[in-house]
Amino acid sequence: MLPADLFFQSLLAIKSQPLRTALIVLAMSIGVASVSVLVALGDSARRYIVHEFEALGTHLVIVLPGRNETTGGPPPLFGETPRDLTLGDARALSASPHIAAIAPLMIGAAPVSSQGLERETNIFGSTRELFGARHLHMAQGGFLPKIPADQARSVCVIGQTIRKELFPNRQAIGQWLRINDRRFRVIGVLAPEGESIGTDFDEMVIVPVASGQALFDTEALFRILVEAKSKQAMPKAVDDIRKIIKARHEGEEDITIITQDSVVGTFDKILAALTLTVASIAAISLAVAGVLVMNVMLVSVTQRTAEIGLLKALGATRRQLHMLFLAEAALLSLAGAAAGALLGQLALAGLQLAYPKFPLALPPWAFLAALGVALLTGLTFGLLPARKAARLNPITALAKR
Fold first, then answer.
1. What does pTM read for this prediction?
2. What does the domain layout of the chain look like in residue ranges?
């Protein structure tokens, strides 16, 4: 029996039982579609979060007040608080030769208004270095002036949402914006940035850090953004930050340092493991489809005993009968996998329409893996029916016993 004979004989057997074929293809397609959609969701979530953290800046180090650690014993009775970070701490970090830029940050919420229009929003206090550290872009005007961090100036930069709501029909550049009881002149409008790791720059007003501290009557910084000179310099920059702040804080290491690479790497590993886990769970449906293939083909062997007996009487070997039933299982599995791949792409297209801002895509390896697993499942569960058919006695089979 030639390979072409095996193929056409398998096609004839599949066509002769349309209901059986439809059930197997449906089961396989559901399994492949489930694996495709879940892998695409997991992998897209991983790439989205990694991209969000990478968009924070290049070689970024974040310094936060308070040490992030877990200790035993009861919590302190009177609410011990960490030492604040100050502009002096930020200026001291410039002593490190491994640091390219330092952007102190303070944040507060306040009402902003202009010519009778008012809304509540977040106020960022920082320096010009924030522009490069966070890879911001300007739509109009310029960013904060290059002045000493401790020098206040009544200027501000606004996001796109603030521009649209407070300056709907007029040019924002050069206009006055009132924040609490102080006036700031708008010198720049940010390009649309959207939300990044919980920070929406479109709804932000950025002022010089000293002006922000005066506005909210505080000397404390929310955090300090530090940009290392290179990826290789990041570990040395972290060590320098820890030493400098420790020396300024009376020998106490009371800060938390987060590096961009460590956060990206951690999320990448967690979400990659999660993707494989949900894909494995979805693959159970392929195993269920494989059981259906085995059961249906076992029934097929019983129904086709006369055909099998005739083939054996004509000289068909056990190996050829093995190949005949396995070819049928492979064709059914591939048809189900193709239908499942199409169904999965339709589901992903629907999800993309529902959530246009979330990039959904099935990685090529996942598509090939789903096809391979579907084929392997069909062949594995088709092996038992094939062996049963090959062991039939030709005389008994011809007699349909």
1. 0.60
2. 3-52+265-398, 83-253
